[in-house]
Amino acid sequence: MIQRLVKRALCALLGVACLALSASCETNNPEQQIETVRIGVATYRSDDTFITALCDDLERVSKQMESETGKKIILNIADGKNSQSNQNDQVDNFISRSYDVICVNMVDRTVAAVIIDKAKRADIPVVFFNREPVEEDIRMWDRAYYVGTDAKESGIMQGQIILNALKKDAGIDKNGDGKLQYVMLEGEQAHQDSLIRTEYSVKTITAGGVQMEKLANDTANWQRSLGTAKMTSWLDQFGDEIEVVLSNNDDMALGAIDALKAQDMLENGPVVVGVDGTLAALEAIQNGEMLGSVVNDAQLQAQAMLDIACALTEGSDPQQVVEGMNGQYVRAPHRIVTKENVGQEIAYLTQSE
């Protein structure tokens, strides 16, 4: 009888000890100590080559920052499917789930005030990227930011690629009339980068003392397939009169190259220049199919977006800690890429893959 009582007492004590140990383990569980940063990312469309690359960089850089800081970074990337209504709903969802920061690649840059008002009322900072809202909207709230580039710089550099090439090869002016006959593939008509790149690429060439004669221009909405369709039509209309193809982005430029290949006009045909420095474009430059591009550095922009987000969640002023920040803006510098330095750019782009 006594032995049984002793056994029961020992079992009870052991049970209490196990519960205490379990509670202690739960309290000291390192998983519960990890700071979590939740970031909602709303893109205008997921099938845009540059936006896809930037989102891939966001995922990669967030993993690096997790290992460096010990924080848990959760990214929720939503596809707006080129619908502002869809994007508004996605932002509402991020707000309802109390995300720490919201990043938005606007479908319609002219209505950013709606997003800012939503974010301000919820007191959730918002970082716009790639598609720049009008300045008056950004100034509505000191916790609204923009990460992107200087579109004027990209247009100037695109023009410089043509000027530099002409110095090396006057044969780009195939008919020898002292002018460059060109076609222009434009992005969305209302997109500020499209308008500015179009203007300054041509201005830079003419300011360099080279006359330009526009044969045609049209929008291809940043898309390779539409670039092919437009270029095919122009080749049917102008044939080998076209000496230069200026494109607001690489995908449309690659579409033009596809059209040239289809008509067996790539060799000794017009030179083609794009903007973005995507991997497909860099490979086309390396292969001699494309004259050059202007690198739109997605990696730098992804890093800046995450740096802003982490600074905000820590209670820091991003303007004091984020490299290259000027007020509420971060603008990543562009770089010219041609066959001379394309290997270096490919290495940079693929270093973390």
TrEMBL record:
<keyword id="KW-0732">Signal</keyword>
<dbReference type="InterPro" id="IPR025997">
    <property type="entry name" value="SBP_2_dom"/>
</dbReference>
<keyword id="KW-0479">Metal-binding</keyword>
<comment type="subunit">
    <text>The ABC transporter complex is composed of one ATP-binding protein (MglA), two transmembrane proteins (MglC) and a solute-binding protein (MglB).</text>
</comment>
<feature type="domain" description="Periplasmic binding protein">
    <location>
        <begin position="39"/>
        <end position="315"/>
    </location>
</feature>
<feature type="signal peptide">
    <location>
        <begin position="1"/>
        <end position="22"/>
    </location>
</feature>
<dbReference type="Pfam" id="PF13407">
    <property type="entry name" value="Peripla_BP_4"/>
</dbReference>
<dbReference type="InterPro" id="IPR044085">
    <property type="entry name" value="MglB-like_PBP1"/>
</dbReference>
<comment type="similarity">
    <text>Belongs to the bacterial solute-binding protein 2 family.</text>
</comment>
<dbReference type="InterPro" id="IPR028082">
    <property type="entry name" value="Peripla_BP_I"/>
</dbReference>
<protein>
    <recommendedName>
        <fullName>D-galactose/methyl-galactoside binding periplasmic protein MglB</fullName>
    </recommendedName>
</protein>
